[in-house]
TrEMBL record:
Belongs to the class-I aminoacyl-tRNA synthetase family. Coiled coil: none annotated. Residues 11-155 form the Aminoacyl-tRNA synthetase class Ia domain. ATP binds at residue 736. It holds the Pfam family Anticodon_1. The lineage of its organism: Bacteria, Pseudomonadati, Bacteroidota, Flavobacteriia, Flavobacteriales. It is an enzyme of class 6 (ligase). This is Leucine--tRNA ligase. Residues 288-480 form the Leucyl-tRNA synthetase editing domain. One of its GO terms (molecular function) is leucine-tRNA ligase activity. Its EC number is 6.1.1.4.
């Protein structure tokens, strides 16, 4: 009976689907365990072998936990909104919802291209997903709840006293009774104070404008990354080297009225929460750096009045080094700072505007990373030092960011490298002073001194002689005394822009009355994305929803109606922006808990039962964006009484990337002549990528097949090496661009899903990046065939009821111990090695004992579930192996009772002897001396000394 993986895979995948084998229960007597994968964006390219790596790891772990008796929730869904689908729709004239559906379910697209479909590809690998809970973020029955959460955020404010989000009605109540003077809230800056009487006298519109300054999601004019080529705003993590990650389009900084999320309210909780979760230190550090907590002072530098800016008061600066305030020699504003246009003198106007235009083409990330380029422009304005009253020139420079601190820097060149470089570069120009040294016994002739250690302040009036801590405290006290500063904790974390000028995203449940946003009542959700003729912005620059013919809100009938009916009396315009890609992915793990609940995103009972994710596996590229936003939404929902825990993901593991091994052919430059790899050094050549699937394990390619692949090769001349054409190899990112994509379907079709699963786990440690090499697959396939032969020969099942030998039990229990430890430690590659060792040992022991082979099938099951199910069934069982108890390790089978001693004579080993470990030295010596081999070696002599170390060595000397 031969191992036929294709038949076995199809049989058991059908069985699992029909029997809902992996459907989790929302309450169970078993302990719960929630294992989650970062769900995929379903592109038309489908899966390559790099994509399933994390899914296989989480599946191994999920199956193991079921064997341990847990009620396991292991769901899957699709992050199906996003820019790629919209761009594809624009290019091909298809509807994004159609292409997204085909990409998930499979089928033929408008261009006649056959799409395998993510779902079919995932099923082919045999994952134990609970498909009854599948979610798609672009389905209205899902995004109605995303819209609902947005409304909750809009109707909330952050109370610093209670340190949590509260309903906006509680804030209104305070305003009505006592105004806002004593309110401690996270809010916009520079809010005007008002009394209760003034509040109650305000019109409704005036009150709404004030409340927008406090709401957790709010409208504000914001500096954004605008990408004209994509027609949308991009997040910082969607930009690489100043261009959009998708498409490589230029990105500029631009001010726009946008929806924003007040994630900054949660900065400290996001920071402290990292102490309570089991994540890698590198991911935690990424988040700490992104949040960027700084303790220092807010300092007010009064502006020196000029004829054109006499009404301006001051520049506010946040500094972490108030101890260095007497070292300030100039100030630098971010080019985007709102004061720049107001303070710039007429003489400097042209230079400043040209610089701002130039800077707008560089992303924040690029500006932060570029420490070599020094650039800036003098504004013509001066500020006054709070203590010395000295005039300080005000410059702009792109090394200062509007979104960090106040967008202004008090430049202390002696204590900061960038300030030092800037001051030296512009030395002697436009009032740029000599660098002041305020550090005693420190040489700053070559570089700034940025350390806080061993600092003694000098040339600083009342701070002279103090160290960093003493001077910081004293400086803040004096600033507070004169009303020009205060101690403050600041965060780098900025509020998240929540608008996108695109079509394929969640519609906002928002309409506008007198230009002010109003929320649609939750009972009328979802507000469904309307159809539009084209997905580009309108001719007058409005987002794509500006093309919708039916996109207005009827407040009497509570429904979406024709745009032409807007009368601003009963029918009002709807929001034209859509939510960003991270909206639906910021809460999806909760929807899995209760995926079919029509009334709530999840019931209180389901949330209380599953609580949070026990294990989350995904790529490290989400270290900040997705994970920070998810933690923010979870904390908000906890504040509002919905989420049961403060943190959503207890343990996080980042899988590494599987790289492709590209195939290269070498073309002689300027010709259509191609040479085999070993001959390329004889010519001047250029390397071309070819389809890796045409190359065999020996790196050979069939030239005739290559000629048929692309027209450029059809009439080419090919120079062979000993009758073969050998290609070059290069390890790089797996991508269609490099023709190095390996389709997991092809591996499954040829070798079976279990071979793919085992091989991906065998490639190396889960967290590491590793290259794909198809050549190693045959070895894993050979292992599965060898495993099969322990149970079957050509005539059928050969498993017997023989008592297992001591060696049989030793091999089995070594494997039980190793596999259980490896899965708990996520060291999946070494488990596969142990399986191979075990099967080799059992084969050499000629073991066919049921007492060994039944538990062995269970051990293999998490990794190779199809063959394990078949073996289990062939052994006579009628239910799935998936929940059979994991074998229990028994130490006694690994305890050695005998020891094979090397017996040496004058240090040279001559033979070995097996003896019980509990013998004394005297007993060992007596047995060894009587052994005939010892007698032959001694040849009648008596040794001078017999050295015996029980359990280790025997050595006869002399």
């Amino acid at each position: 009976m031969k191992y036929n993986p294709n038949e076995i895979d199809a049989k058991w995948q059908k069985y699992w689907a029909e029997n809902q084998t992996f459907a989790a229960k929302n309450n169970s007597e078993k302990p719960k365990h929630y294992v989650l994968d970062m769900f995929p964006y379903p592109s038309g390219a489908g899966l390559h072998v790099g994509h399933p790596l994390g899914y296989i790891a989480s599946d191994v772990y999920s199956r193991f936990k079921r064997h341990q008796g847990f009620n396991v929730l292991h769901p899957m869904g699709y992050d199906s909104f996003g820019l790629p689908a919209e761009q594809y729709a624009i290019q091909t004239g298809q509807r994004p919802e159609d292409t997204t559906r085909v990409n998930i379910d499979g089928g033929v697209d408008k261009e006649g291209k056959q799409i395998a479909g993510y779902r079919k590809q995932l099923d082919k690998i045999g994952f134990s997903f609970d498909w009854s809970r599948e979610v798609r973020t672009s389905n209205p029955d899902y995004y109605k709840h995303t819209q609902w959460i947005f409304i909750q955020l809009f109707n909330s404010w952050y109370n610093k006293d209670s340190d949590k989000a509260e309903d906006i009605s509680t804030l209104v109540s305070i305003f009505e009774k006592e105004g806002n003077t004593n309110v401690k809230a996270v809010s916009d800056d520079n809010i005007q104070s008002f009394s209760s009487g003034e509040w109650n006298a305000f019109s409704k519109d005036e009150q709404e404008k004030i409340l927008l300054q406090y709401r957790l999601t709010y409208l504000a004019e914001t500096e954004v990354n605008w990408c004209p080529g994509l027609g949308t705003v991009l997040a910082n993590d969607e930009i690489v080297n100043g261009v959009s990650e998708r498409g490589g389009f230029p990105v500029i900084r631009k001010k726009m009225t946008q929806w924003s999320m007040r994630i900054s309210a949660y900065a400290e909780r996001l920071l402290q929460g990292l102490n309570d979760i089991d994540w890698s230190e590198s991911i935690k550090e990424s988040q700490r750096n992104w949040i960027g907590k700084s303790v220092g002072a807010m300092v007010s530098f009064s502006l020196v009045p000029t004829t054109h800016s006499s009404e301006l008061k001051a520049i506010e600066v946040f500094t972490t080094r108030p101890d260095t305030i007497f070292g300030v020699t100039f100030m630098t504003l971010a080019p985007e700072h709102e004061l720049v246009a107001k303070i710039t003198t007429p003489e400097q106007k042209a230079a400043v505007e040209a610089y701002i235009e130039k800077t707008s083409k560089r992303s924040e990330r690029e500006r932060m990373a570029d420490v070599k380029t020094i650039s800036g422009v003098f504004t013509g304005a001066y500020a006054e030092h709070p203590f010395t009253k000295e005039a300080i020139p005000v410059w702009i420079g792109d090394y200062v960011l509007a979104g960090y601190g106040t967008g202004a820097v008090m430049a202390v060149p002696c204590g900061d490298e960038r300030d030092y470089a800037f001051a030296n570069f512009f030395k002697g120009q436009n009032g740029m002073q000599e660098i002041k040294n305020i550090f005693a016994n420190v040489d700053i002739s070559e570089a700034a001194y940025g350390s806080k250690d061993n600092v003694e302040i000098a040339n600083s009036d009342f701070l002279n002689g103090l160290n960093y801590k003493e001077a910081t405290k004293k400086a803040i006290e004096k600033l507070e005394e004169i009303g020009q500063g205060t101690g403050k904790t600041n965060y780098r974390l900025r509020d998240a822009v929540f608008s996108r000028q695109r079509y394929w995203g969640e519609p906002f449940p928002v309409y506008y009355v007198n230009g002010l946003p109003k929320m649609i009542d939750a009972q009328h959700l979802p507000i469904i994305l309307p159809e539009v003729e084209k997905y580009l912005p309108t001719e007058d620059g409005l987002p794509p929803l500006g093309n919708a013919a039916v996109w207005a809100w009827d407040t009497k009938n509570n429904k979406v109606v024709d745009t032409d009916l807007v009368d601003n009396v009963a029918i009002f315009p709807l929001e034209l922006n859509t939510m960003p890609g991270w909206a639906g992915s910021s809460w999806y793990w909760m929807r899995y808990m209760d995926a079919h609940n029509e009334n709530e995103f999840a019931s209180a009972a389901a949330l209380a039962y599953w609580e949070s994710v026990d294990l989350y596996i995904g790529g490290s590229e989400h270290a900040t964006g997705h994970l920070l936003y998810s933690r923010f939404w979870n904390k908000f929902l906890k504040d509002k009484g919905f989420a049961p825990t403060e943190e959503p993901f207890k343990k996080l593991i980042n899988q590494g990337m599987i790289l492709g091994t590209s195939a290269l052919v070498y073309r002689v430059s300027g010709t259509n002549k191609y040479v085999s790899k070993n001959l390329k050094d004889d010519y001047e050549t250029e390397a071309l990528h070819i389809d890796v699937n045409m190359v065999n394990a020996a790196d050979e390619i069939d030239v005739e097949r290559l000629k048929r692949w692309q027209p450029q090769f059809e009439n080419g001349e090919f120079v062979l090496d000993n009758g073969k054409f050998i290609v070059g190899r290069e390890v790089e990112k797996m991508s269609k661009r490099w023709y190095n994509v390996v389709n997991p379907d092809d591996i499954c079709n040829e070798y079976g899903a279990d071979t793919l699963r085992l091989y991906e786990m065998f490639l190396g440690p889960l967290e590491q990046t590793k290259p794909w090499s198809t050549g190693g697959i045959t070895g894993v396939f050979g292992f599965l065939k060898k495993l099969w032969r322990l149970y079957f020969d050509d005539n059928g099942l050969i498993v017997n009821n023989d008592e297992p030998t001591k060696d049989n039990l030793k091999s089995l229990h070594k494997t039980i111990k190793k596999v259980a430890e490896d899965i708990e430690n996520f060291s999946f590659n070494t488990s596969v090695s142990q399986f191979m060792i075990c099967v080799n040992e059992l084969s050499s022991q000629n073991c066919h004992s049921r007492a060994i082979l039944e538990p062995l099938a269970i051990l293999v099951s998490p990794y190779a579930p199809h063959i394990a199910e078949e073996l289990w069934a062939q052994l006579g069982h009628t239910t799935s192996i998936s929940e059979v108890a994991f074998p229990i390790f028994e130490e006694k089978h690994l305890v050695e009772t005998n020891k094979e001693y090397p017996v040496s004579f004058n240090g040279k080993m001559r033979f070995t002897i097996e003896l019980p470990l509990d013998l004394t030295k005297e007993q060992i010596e007596e047995i060894v001396m009587k052994d005939e081999r010892t007698q032959r070696q001694l040849d009648g002599r008596t040794p001078n000394k017999v050295i015996i170390v029980p359990g280790k060595i025997i050595n006869l000397v002399g």
